[in-house]
Amino acid sequence: MGYVEDLRKIVGHRPLILTGSVVIVLNKQNNVLLQQRKYPYGVWGLPGGLMELGESTEECARREVWEETGLTIGELELISVSSGKNHYVKAQNGDEFYVVTIVYMTKDIVQGKPQVHDDESLQIKYFPLHQLPDNMVGSHRKAIHNYLELT
Q: Nudix hydrolase domain location, by residue (predicted)?
């Protein structure tokens, strides 16, 4: 059981501040790797997730990419950090949280081929940066937009 699950046993559904990382993984054609998720069902997003105790945000990013896509990634570039009242989430089970999201970018795929590698994903697929799917996590679309503004 992970940190968030353990914490929820203590605090129930009350609002928490949770920190996580997502990664803009680009291939040689400069397409971005997205994960179609089971929750919320069918929604596309960047690979990523919440930190575990003792993890750095970079370690979280690498672990989540591997868990969700089977890719081992190398060098990470910090793109942005987002937080605040606009990052409030109320899950279907009633859990409430404000998320602090650290966004990284990498073109450094060290090992592996992108594939569904966990039970959280429906599919893993590359998309052109300017042709993202309509059904996408809003904050992840914004993270990609922020990245494009930097380049």
A: 15-150
CA-closest candidate to residue 46, choices 148, 136, 151: 136
User: Using an 8 Å Cβ cutoff, are 32 and 26 in contact?
Assistant: yes
In this predicted model, what pLDDT tens digit does every residue of 52-68 receive, in sequence order?
A: 999 999 999 999 999 99
Could you give the C-alpha distances from 51 to 3, 6, 102, in angstroms and in order? 8, 13, 11
Collapsed DSSP state (helix, strand, coil) of residue 148: helix
Cβ pair 12, 24 in contact under 8 A: no
Strand 44-45 relative to strand 31-37, pairing = antiparallel
d(CA 27, CA 34): 12
Task: Retrieve residue 36's tokens.
Answer: 């179609």
| Those residues with Cβ within 8 angstroms of residue 85's Cβ, 6 or more apart along the chain or in another chain | 98
- What does 111-139 look like in DSSP terms, one character per residue? E------SSSEEEEEEEETTS--SSB-HH
4 within 8 A of 18, measured Cβ to Cβ? yes
pTM of the predicted model as reported, rounded to 2 decimal places: 0.94
